[in-house]
Amino acid sequence: MKRLAITLVLVLATSFCATAAFGQQPAEPSEPGPEAEAEKPEAAPDESKEKEEGAKPAPEAKAEDAKPAEPETTDAGAGKVAADAALKAPADSKEPKANAKVYSLKAVTNMALKNAAVMREFEAKLQKAKWQEYRANWAWAPAIKTTTLLAPVPEQAEVGSFASNIDQYLALNIGPYVRFKAELGIPIYTFGKISTAQELAEIGVDVAKMKQEEAKLDVLYQVRRAYHSIQLSKEFQDLLDEGSSILKPKLESMEEDREFGEAEFSTEDFRKVQIFDAEFDSRILDNKKLNDIATAGLRYFTGIEGDFGVKAVDPDAPPAELASLQRYKDVAAVMRPDWRMLREAVKARGLQVEMAKSNIYPDIAFGTTVTLGWSTEEISLESVCRRPTPSSECVDTADLFARPYGNPFSQFSVNFGLIMKWDINYWQLRGKLGEAEADLATTRAQYDRAKGGIELEIEKLYVEAYSALERLRVQERRLEAARRWRDQFGLSVQTAGTDISKGIDPLKAFFESKALQLQARYEYQVARAALAKGIGVANLNDVSVY
């Protein structure tokens, strides 16, 4: 988009010159004087038309009479008619409708921050980081693990003999059996694992916020560039409209004079006007393309629907000043998101080294286990062997039965004590510690290298902004000199009857200088937006210039 705008200005610098020269020449004699012309330099195009009307009676009627003959004019040709028809639609649609809402730069930036999908993406990532921090902060809390078993058991089951219970299963003489087991663990001492994890989680939240700020700065830069591009296109269009209102009637008048043999100008001048007219039409299309692309970009970021407009630039407002380079570097060291993320990365690597050291040692916790079993069914009685002496055989066992010792269907037990979990794998854990230490050294070196690169980038952005400011001042001086030269030419025509051909150069200088001044102002605005993004602030005006 920026390249398109620069190309537009370079071509305009050529087309405006001769375009205005032939169109404004008759206008100067009707000006009241040098003081009035200095106050209202842009009024020349309208006055030129009045002067031309005074020199030739009823020029509008002549133009209307000549319109039917245009297709037969060999100089204009059918291509000119087609070009005029093609340009009619862009000319009619270049301005927003009268009831279209006009947005300020602050309004569109606020809308973009609420609408841009990239902002919602990083907001979601921030929420994820916060939940990770939540988990780390509650790592000390008791952890409870439960297991519940529900199974069918036969009525009067014989413990330890599945074959004898098959008939009960087949007859569906079964009932439910429930066993519940709960394990609880409370960390007591982990050699710094929990506290290190909490610090790492805090860094994760901070980094997520920084990435969100970085995305915000990029959105603000893109929106500002699109907004200023629309402003530039609008100002260019005003300049094009001014030149078109001068060139078109002049070209029609010259074509009429040639057709009726009343031409008082050279063929060379006539061909120049034709060429400039075609280039002028091309520049109108280029400017519309610039406006359409910038408008589409602004709609994408803000979600604006329907027709809308932007506030016009105050031509009398002086350009904002710049602070010193060192001031911007100091601000960037505190505010720039990626610079802050690098410092957090070094801190995180150090914590990872501490975590690797902690993993060499065990985790000590308090644990308890509760087991509960219950069923509606009872187990079968077991025969009892009665022995007169321990070494004698069983006697009288036919009617001796008792329940088994320990009913597996009815359980309740509680166990508790200290638990030590220790991964005894020294060589692997020591290797991981060495890797963490190497990562820390790498990140520190990257931080030192990136610090120099960021400072270089800020210096480059500052030089570009400062050069753009100086270029704007130069173009403003050039425009003022060109305006005075144009006004001086108007006065000389009015008082001394200077030949029209002598006005080409001053008028050319004025329109070229005006186009370059508009471009320089746009480039300075974009350079300031880029510098604001580079140092990590939303608006460069927030940084004191003193």
Record the SSE blueprint.
Elements: H1 2-24, H2 34-39, H3 44-55, H4 59-66, H5 77-93, E1 101-103, H6 105-115, H7 117-137, E2 143-154, H8 166-170, E3 174-189, H9 193-259, H10 267-302, E4 308-310, H11 325-335, H12 337-358, E5 363-375, E6 382-383, E7 401-402, E8 411-421, H13 426-496, H14 504-535
Parallel strand pairs: 1-4
Antiparallel strand pairs: 2-3, 3-5, 5-8, 6-7
Helix pairs in contact: 1-9, 1-10, 1-14, 3-9, 4-9, 5-10, 6-9, 7-9, 9-10, 9-12, 9-14, 11-13, 12-13, 13-14
Characterization of this structure:
With 546 residues, the chain is of the alpha+beta class. It has helices at 2-24, 34-39, 44-55, 59-66, 77-93, 105-115, 117-137, 166-170, 193-259, 267-302, 325-335, 337-358, 426-496, 504-535; strands at 101-103, 143-154, 174-189, 308-310, 363-375, 382-383, 401-402, 411-421. The strands form three sheets. Strands 2-3-5-8 form a four-stranded antiparallel beta sheet. A two-stranded parallel ribbon has the order 1-4. The longest helix is centred in the last third of the chain and has 71 residues, at 426-496. The radius of gyration is 44 Å and the shape is elongated.
Low-confidence stretches: 1-94, 492-501
Label the structural class: alpha+beta
The average pLDDT score comes to 78
**Nearest-angstrom radius of gyration?**
44 Å
H-E string = HHHHHEHHEHEHHEHHEEEEHH
- Percent of residues in β-strands: 5-15%
Note the quaternary state here: single chain
Give the total of beta strands.
8
How do the strands line up in the largest sheet?
2-3-5-8
